[in-house]
């Protein structure tokens, strides 16, 4: 099937993106980004981009809003989702590429978003396929939510930073393997790959896995380590963390953020 990715314009297209949040995540009414926000994003320097079927059905979307760290401007990506029956056909990546293109056109060099550390697909997609890095952790960021993807666990989140024109990102988007295993790795954070299953059958055990991951990340980030790799395994998934990353990104803004990391706003997602 041929899809197209383009900005949403009509109220019906924005409303379709609001509905997608319920269909993809199973959020309650009070938890979705509302129609009026989406309508305004397009008018204030942000966007809502839709993935359309040839019949005009919106089956995925990404929404971004302008944000600041101090005087530095970036995009905060509010949400990215694709309907389950349209997943793994390249739509997620196509939406992120269109988002990146729009950010660069507006003179931005970074997009940030949050994601659940225990979702292996998202970790692989963000770190390996897109080339994002991570060095901040938010414990139970949203409090309890009804999303079925959350499976009743606290809403812990990692904050992805996507340095749009950095050598790392250009390499990742070009499909060049990062060869994570051979890089200079300072630490690893691993967890059992059946945590999703555990959350259904043994929630206490799943919660313990999440807590252990949280504590390890909090220590790693306090030690100024940065997630630069992800390896998915049959029984265990692993995040790989490095201490040397500045040169890899070669962005003055990144250095500025590193120095100011403790005071950066964590109002994300
Ligand atoms: C995350 C999401 C947007 C990706 O969309 P998508 O259209 O499936 O993405 P793509 O097809 O472009 O790429 C998915 C990649 O993940 C890989 N993948 C699929 N299942 C995987 C898994 N269980 N573990 C690791 N990687 C996996 C695919 O093989 C593909 O990689 P490839 O290009 O090397 O083949 C989509 O899965 C989604 O909507 N998830 C639910 C909402 C969500 O979690 N959003 C937050 C995103 S941070």
Brief overview, please?
The protein has about 270 residues and is an alpha+beta fold.
Question: What helical percentage do the residues reach?
Answer: 25-40%
pLDDT < 50 runs, ≥5 residues: none
Number of H- or I-type helical stretches: 9
Write down the overall geometry.
Answer: globular
Describe, in plain words, how this protein is organized in 3D:
The chain has 269 residues and is an alpha+beta fold. The protein is 35% helix and 26% strand. It is built from nine helices and ten strands. The protein has helices at residues 11-25, 35-41, 91-105, 120-129, 167-173, 195-201, 203-222, 246-249, 252-259, and strands at 4-7, 47-52, 58-69, 72-82, 110-115, 133-138, 157-163, 187-192, 226-231, 236-242. The strands form two sheets. It has a seven-stranded mixed β-sheet, with helices on both faces. Strands 8-10-9 form a three-stranded antiparallel β-sheet. Helix 6 (195-201) packs across helix 7 (203-222). The mean pLDDT is 91. It binds coenzyme A. The site of coenzyme A has 20 residues, from strand 4, helix 3 and helix 4.
Keywords:
single chain; 269 residues; three-stranded antiparallel β-sheet; 35% helix; globular
How do the strands and helices of this protein lay out in sequence?
Layout: E1 4-7, H1 11-25, H2 35-41, E2 47-52, E3 58-69, E4 72-82, H3 91-105, E5 110-115, H4 120-129, E6 133-138, E7 157-163, H5 167-173, E8 187-192, H6 195-201, H7 203-222, E9 226-231, E10 236-242, H8 246-249, H9 252-259
Parallel strand pairs: 4-5
Antiparallel strand pairs: 1-2, 2-3, 3-4, 5-7, 6-7, 8-10, 9-10
Residues 24, 80-82, 87-93, 115, 120-122, 124-126, 129, 232 line the site of coenzyme A.
């Amino acid at each position: 099937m041929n899809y197209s990715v383009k900005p949403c314009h009509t109220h019906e297209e924005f409303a379709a993106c609001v509905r997608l949040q319920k269909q993809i995540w199973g959020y309650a009414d009070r938890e979705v980004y509302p129609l009026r926000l989406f309508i305004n994003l397009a008018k204030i320097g942000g966007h809502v981009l839709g993935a359309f079927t040839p019949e005009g059905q919106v089956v995925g979307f990404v929404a971004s809003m302008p944000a600041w760290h101090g005087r530095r401007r970036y995009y905060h990506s509010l949400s990215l989702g694709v309907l389950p029956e349209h997943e793994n056909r390249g739509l997620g990546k196509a939406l992120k590429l269109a988002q990146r293109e729009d950010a660069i056109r507006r003179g931005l060099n970074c997009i940030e978003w949050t994601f659940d550390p225990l979702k292996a697909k998202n970790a692989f997609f963000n770190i390996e396929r897109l080339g994002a890095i991570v060095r901040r952790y938010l414990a139970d960021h949203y409090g309890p939510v009804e999303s079925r993807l959350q499976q009743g666990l606290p809403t812990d989140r990692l904050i992805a930073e996507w340095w749009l024109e950095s050598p790392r990102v250009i390499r990742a988007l070009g499909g060049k393997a990062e060869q994570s295993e051979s890089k200079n790795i300072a630490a690893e954070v691993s967890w059992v790959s059946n945590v999703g299953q555990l959350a259904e059958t043994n929630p206490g055990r799943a919660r313990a896995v999440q807590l252990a991951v949280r504590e390890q990340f909090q220590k790693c980030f306090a030690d100024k380590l940065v997630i630069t790799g992800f390896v998915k395994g049959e029984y265990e998934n692993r995040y790989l963390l490095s201490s040397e990353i500045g040169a890899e990104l070669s962005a003055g803004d990144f250095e500025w953020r590193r120095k100011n990391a403790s005071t950066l706003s964590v109002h994300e997602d």
